[in-house]
Amino acid sequence: MTIAYASVRTKNLFEAAMLFGIFSLVSASFFVVLDAVDVAMTEAAVGAGVSTILMLSTLAVTGHKVRPRPVQRNVLAIAVSVLLGAALVYGTLDMPRIGDPDAPVQTHPIARHFIEVSPVETQIPNMVTPLLASYRGYDTLGETAVVFTAGIGVLALIGRRRRRDGTPVEAGEGVDAMQDRHRVLRIVGKQLIPAILLYACYVQAHGDFGPGGGFQAGVIFASALMLFMLLVGIDEAEKVIKPKVLEKLIALGLLIYGCTGLLTVLKGGAFLDYKVLAHDPIHGLHYGILAVELGVGITVTAVITTIIFTFAGHMRGRQKLVAPATDGTVVTTDGGAL
Questions:
Q1: Separation of alpha carbons 61 and 141, rounded Å
Q2: According to its UniProt record, where is this protein mainly located (predicted)?
């Protein structure tokens, strides 16, 4: 509540973006308390990391001060916010308490069925993994397709930065690496990147034993690539992480997921019925889940990285955001300020 009030009251958009990132971290801690660690991973990486960088990238182009608005508009906005907040609070009055054993979600037969049958049928300790990748595999395929569509939509609407003659700007046609005054950040950040990538691989491979999976591993992997871009600059990053390769990886992950389902059909089973992938149904189920989780991880990583690189590429050549100065202005890598 305090963070929300502070973000509404501040007139500095940079401060508001930072408060949004803090709110995401607090929300992630709530999910940890509720034993939803996999959701907490995603919230921390996307909410506090990717979203914050996108907002700061926008501020580097548009400015960080709020324009004065007529008092009548402020009153109307406050009235709408109060009414909406009152409706939301009223809607929570009928909700059961957290952890209530008599809540509908606890007493519904389907929930009890999955709790009792899933460990026996799948022999996977983390119940969330077979639920997402097997029991509701169609739904997860749709979610992956939504992520794929988001990446394609960004490329279609914004696309890579181009010269005036329409040809794409290649890596190395600009200088936007961090200056020498950020040497400590560069050294410390480069030490963190291998650890983040290793942890992402662990989350990807360990999703059937603990919190994790393709979505979580994808956002963590993308956050490491985003940190690399911030440290060395978009030009140097594109020399290592080719935009054309990322575009192909966006489709590759979804293709792996869909082809896994087609393979189960060719082997005589139903679509996404992984049990036919091996001589033993349990092994086949595990192979199928690993394959589709890999596809999800590839698509999520490629889409998030593409979005960040696309925004950063358009910001390149204008003003490049690094950090706020002591006087509240936003310092850019070309020495300017907003």
A1: 36
A2: membrane
Tokens 């939509």 appear where? 153
Q: Is 80 part of a structural domain of the chain?
A: no
DSSP track, 115-172: HHHHHHHH--S-THHHIIIIITHHHHHHHHHHHHHHHHHHHHHT-S-B-TTSPBPPTT
pLDDT digits (tens, 9 = 90+) for 168-213: 555 444 444 454 557 787 888 889 999 999 999 999 988 878 788 8
The domain tally of the chain equals: 2
Q: pTM of this prediction?
A: 0.79
CB-CB contact of 162 with 168 (8 Å): yes
Opening angle at CA 324, ends 319 and 329, nearest 5: 75
Please state, in angstroms and rounded to a whole number, the distance separating the CA atoms of residues 218 and 299.
8
| In the block, residue with structure tokens 């139903």 | 270
Structure token digits, residue 115: 């709790």
Quick one: 51 and 138 in the same domain? no
Residue 107 neighbours by CB under 8 Å, 6+ apart = 101
**Cα–Cα distance measured from residue 174 to residue 312, given in angstroms and rounded to the nearest whole number:** 12
Q: How far apart are CA 332 and CA 324, in angstroms?
A: 9
Together in a domain, 131 and 266: yes
CA gap 76, 72 in Å, rounded: 6
Give the whole-angstrom CA distance, residue 126 versus residue 207: 7
Looking at the fold, whether 48 and 140 belong to one and the same domain comes out as no
Any domain includes 202: yes
